[in-house]
Amino acid sequence: MDQVIVRLLPAVPRPVVQRLSAPYIAGATLDDARHTVAGLNAEGKLGTVDVLGEEVTKAAEAEAVASAYHAVLDAIAGDQLDANVSVKLTALGLKLDLDLCRSLLATVVADAAARGIFVRIDMEDSTCTDDTLVLYRELREARRENVGIVLQSRLRRSLDDIVALAGLRPSVRLCKGIYVEPAAIAYQARDEVRESFLRILDTLLAVGCYPAVATHDEWLLERTLERVAGMSSEEYELQMLLGVRERRASELADAGHRLRVYVPYGDRWYEYSLRRLQENPALATMVAKATLGRLVPGGR
Ligand code: FDA
Predict the structure, then answer these.
(1) pLDDT of residue 9
(2) Which of 29, 63, 238, 295 is deepest in the core (most CB within 10 A)?
(3) Are 154 and 128 in contact (CB under 8 A)?
């Protein structure tokens, strides 16, 4: 049933998608994001701000996204927020013009470095993996230290990728990976994805990387907590998405773990919202209520 609903999601009216996904998004404006991060900081949590948008089709759009990131960096520094930024390279033109993307990313990373702010490069679908890793490596080889990468445990290649990058001692956000990928390159079964996640985490810890463990999966969280027990809270962090398992996030922050929340904002909310709704276990009920409510007399 859930898989049927997931496939039907693109047919759900956009206003319904927007309403259902509101908890996952800080709002349309930078002010919304800064207020959300300030609130998280007050609860002892850190933020990572994402300007919504991906797959731009014109150079001017990529340049506008880069400008938005410069404004975010300005706001983080100006408000003295405990936050960094997360960047999707397709929003900076990865699929349009690799050189443009390289130069826009370099300016964002340089601006962030000047303000002492870290930049996390999100990982998108597998058609982006090679170029994303190349651009990351170039920045690190140019001695940019304030930049990190994401690896997806769903992808069979990720363990090899971390071994190849280990000499750079990268800061790695480890997540399962949200994109649907074929079996030839990606684990499909839940347990395989989990086992791969732990293999990569163990490797990250063994080679002295800074791991940012991004999951809401309680099974993986428990195993992560066993592994980091005894480590200083400066040596790793846990990450969750805005609007997901917030009570658990608070417990982890209160217990002294560095807990960072991913805070997306902007008006290009649709693709991100669809992905979050696909992962919500209550999706079928929510969509049924939201759509049937419009048809049933007295429904809201
Ligand atoms: P899983 O999906 O099994 O969720 C575990 C439990 O969490 C669920 O049973 C439910 O209780 C709750 N839950 C999860 N999602 C929910 C939702 N949307 N609504 C309500 N409850 C929900 N992916 C990627 O490919 N590239 C990237 O760069 C990133 N970046 C990233 C940053 C951060 C901070 C996080 C937390 C995640 C990502 N991801 C990502 C997404 C990631 O790959 C993955 O798709 C999601 O985190 C869901 O996987 P979990 O490990 O949380 O397990």
Answers:
(1) 83
(2) 238
(3) no
123 in ligand 1 pocket by Cβ < 6 Å? Answer: yes
Catalytic annotation present for 173: yes
CA-closest residue to ligand 1 atom 32: 214
Tokens read off for 26: 């800080």
What is the pTM for the complete model shown?
0.95
* Contact 128 CB / ligand 1 (< 6 Å): no
Whether ligand 1 lies within 6 angstroms of the CB of 61 is answered as no
Whole-number Å distance between alpha carbons of 222 and 266: 33
Run of H or E residues at 186: none
Tokens of 275: 């992905």
Q: Which CATH number fits domain 26-268: 1.10.460.10, 3.40.605.10, 3.10.580.10, 3.20.20.220?
A: 3.20.20.220
Mean pLDDT of 120-146: 98
Q: What is the pLDDT of residues 160-213, one digit of tens each?
A: 999 999 999 999 999 999 999 999 999 999 999 999 999 999 999 999 999 999
Express each pLDDT in 82-124 by its tens digit. 999 999 999 999 999 999 999 999 999 999 999 999 999 999 9
The residue extents of the domains of the chain are 1-25+280-292, 26-268
Phi, psi of 108 (to 5 degrees): -65, -45
